[in-house]
Structures are given as structure tokens and as C-alpha cells.
Design goal:
The chain is mainly α and 378 residues long. The protein contains twelve helices and no strands. The longest helix is centred in the middle third of the chain and has 56 residues. This is Sporulation integral membrane protein YtvI.
């Protein structure tokens, strides 16, 4: 009788090997993402442009390189124009908003100081003199006033530094954009030859599983991103109309900022509306505060009314699992982890649908990714 089970030892070693390869692939992607992300974006753009390139080739008889160059020029022109229009509008109004915030902070600080030295408040201090010393209370109020002013100034400084850093990042962004455009051209121009080469390198059965995974990823990720952008655009539009009705200045820029914030899962438009309404009530602007509190449920109802139509049931993500992955990503990686959690769930779901986990388990148990052929009948 053997001292150990050879089959069990082989299974253990295969399991260790699968674990090493999986962890190595994850680490390679994690540390190499900063280097390869322009080429991933280029591949994505080439994939998105491919229908237009084929149309120009087949219908208008363009050469491949001309069709690719025309598609890139069209996409680039549309994106550049949109960025220019939005950036010009948002930056110009952002400076006005920063100035208004600074004026508001100064106004609040002066109001607190005036109220602190008013006869009404001094009378309240006298009434509390039996239980609290006026010195301690005055010191606390002074610190509180100073903290509010310091926090407000810090927020304004942070916004200013963010805008400054964004401007300084523009040269690097230009270089990255050029690299992405060149890579997009080369990938799209050689799309057919690259597809043929990949088919020759990968076995047919493996290619079928990869096709299922890529198809599910494309369907789920693009469906989720497209649906999220559409819903955030609807949110920004309703927010913009509501701000116009309330007579708010710079409604366009504030609505765009609200739409961007709404893109972040688990946060959304209440992160802007609720604090704004509270400060409006503190200022005594009951009309604006009440209007914002009315606008909030209108936005939520409109968004939830469109969600089933926009998302549908085609994405195929379990709502409970999505919530778990969102929370785990947020807890582990912060705001970026929210998007990482969504992508991780989509990838795992796609791998499960393609039976990748079943095939890997079969490899660990039998040494083959594919089922053993039945013995030939005698």
C-alpha cells in the first residue's frame, strides 16, 4: 500500500499552480495598469470605431487606413468640441462660484461675530452664568467661529489647488492623448490581422470560453456605464431645470457638477442638495431651502422611474451581490473602490457564465480543462 496518494498530491500541486498563476495575473495587471492603460483605452476606442470603419470600407469603398483616419478625426472633433464647450463654461462660472463662496464665508463670520456681541446674546450669557462661566463659553464660541472660517477657507483653497493642478496636468494629458490616438490608429488599421492572429494562437475551445467572457463583459460593463451616464444626464437635466425655476445663478455649472457627483454610486445628488438646503435655511432663505428640498424627491422619483427602462434586466447583476461588492470596494479602496467593485462583480459573473471556474476545478481534479472523452465501445 503506497505511503501517500499520488493523485491527491497531483491535485494539490495543480491547485497551488492555479493559485500562483491567478495571483500573478492580478498583481501584473495591478502594477502594470499604469503603463498599459493608454493601450487599453486605444483598444476600446478601436473596438467602438470598428462598425464605422467597416461602413466606410464597404459602403464608400474607403481604403482601411483612410476609413480609420476619418473615424478618428470624426470622434476626436466631436470629443474636442464637447470638452471645449463644457470646460469654457464650467471654468468661467467656477471662478464666480469660488468668489461667491468666499464672500459667503466672510458674511457668515461677520454675522456670528455681530450676534456674539449683540445685547440679545449677552443676555443669554448672563442667564447661563450660574451654570457655565462666560469665559469658557465665549472661548468655545470664538473657537467655533474660527473653525468655521478656517474650514471654509480650506475648502476654497482646495478647490483652487484642484483647478490649478488640473491646468498643470494638461501637458501630460496632451502627451497621453497623442499616444492613445496613435495606438488607436495602429490597432484599428490592423484589426483584422490581429483578430486572425489571435484565432490562430488560441485553441478553439478556449476561444469559445473567452468569447463568452468578453461578450458578457461587453454587455454588462457597457450596459451599466451607458445606463449610468444616461441616468446621471437625466438627473443633471432635472436639476438644471429646477435651479432655473428657483432662480439660482450659474445653474448650468452647478447642474453639471451635480451630474458628475451623481455618477458616483452610493453618493448621488443628495450630497449637494441637502447641505445646500440646510445652509439656505440657516441664512434665512426659506424659498431656496424649501425649493431644494422639494427638488430632491422630484429628482429621485424621475431617476427611479427611468431606471427600469434604462438598465432593464439585461445587465444580469444580482442586486444584493452588487450592493456587497460596492460596499467592499468602498471600504477597501475608497471612492475608486466603488468602480473596482462593480468591475470585479461583472468579471466574476462573466467567468461563472463561461464555466471558467468549472473548467479550472476540472483541471485541478483531472489535469485537463476539458471533459475526458468516453472510452470507445469495444
Amino acid at each position: 500500500m503506497p505511503l501517500f496518494n499520488v493523485t491527491l498530491v497531483h491535485r494539490i500541486f495543480r491547485g497551488i499552480w492555479v493559485t500562483i498563476v491567478t495571483l500573478g495575473a492580478i498583481l501584473l495587471f495591478y502594477y502594470g495598469f499604469r503603463i498599459i492603460y493608454p493601450f487599453l483605452i486605444a483598444w476600446l476606442l478601436a473596438y467602438m470605431m470598428n462598425p464605422l470603419v467597416r461602413f466606410l470600407e464597404q459602403k464608400w469603398r474607403f481604403p482601411r487606413w483612410t476609413a480609420v483616419a476619418s473615424s478618428i478625426l470624426l470622434f476626436g472633433s466631436i470629443i474636442t468640441f464637447a470638452i471645449f464647450v463644457f470646460t469654457t463654461k464650467i471654468v468661467s462660472e467656477s471662478w464666480h462660484i469660488v468668489g461667491l463662496v468666499q464672500e459667503q464665508i466672510a458674511e457668515w463670520r461677520n454675522w456670528l461675530n455681530d450676534y456674539y456681541h449683540s445685547a440679545e446674546f449677552q443676555a443669554i450669557l448672563s442667564d447661563l452664568n450660574e451654570t457655565l462661566t462666560a469665559i469658557d463659553l465665549q472661548s468655545s464660541l470664538s473657537k467655533y467661529t474660527s473653525t468655521i472660517a478656517t474650514t471654509g477657507s480650506a475648502l476654497v483653497a482646495y478647490l483652487f489647488n484642484f483647478i490649478k493642478a488640473s491646468v498643470l496636468f494638461l501637458p501630460k494629458l496632451a502627451v497621453i492623448t497623442v499616444i492613445i490616438m496613435v495606438a488607436t490608429y495602429l490597432i484599428s488599421k490592423q484589426w483584422n490581422s490581429l483578430a486572425t492572429a489571435s484565432k490562430q494562437m488560441v485553441p478553439e475551445r478556449v476561444r469559445a470560453s473567452i468569447g463568452v467572457v468578453i461578450g458578457d463583459l461587453q454587455h454588462a460593463i457597457f450596459g451599466y456605464v451607458k445606463g449610468h451616464i444616461i441616468l446621471s444626464s437625466i438627473t443633471a437635466l432635472v436639476f438644471f431645470v429646477g435651479l432655473l425655476v428657483l432662480g439660482v445663478e450659474y445653474a448650468f455649472t452647478i447642474a453639471i457638477i451635480g451630474g458628475i457627483v451623481d455618477l458616483i454610486p452610493l453618493i448621488g445628488i443628495p450630497a449637494i442638495v441637502v447641505p445646500w438646503a440646510v445652509f439656505s435655511f440657516i441664512e434665512g432663505n426659506l424659498f431656496l431651502g424649501t425649493g431644494l428640498l422639494v427638488l430632491w424627491p422630484v429628482i429621485l422619483v424621475t431617476r427611479h422611474a427611468f431606471e427600469p427602462k434604462v438598465y432593464g434586466s439585461s445587465i444580469g447583476l444580482n442586486p444584493l451581490m452588487l450592493l456587497i461588492f460596492l460596499f467592499a470596494g468602498l471600504h477597501l479602496l475608497g471612492v475608486i473602490g466603488i468602480f473596482v467593485g462593480i468591475i470585479a462583480l461583472v468579471v466574476l459573473t462573466a467567468l461563472q457564465r463561461a464555466h471558467v471556474f468549472r473548467d479550472v476545478w476540472r483541471y485541478i481534479m483531472t489535469g485537463s480543462f476539458f471533459p475526458m472523452a468516453p472510452p470507445a465501445p469495444k
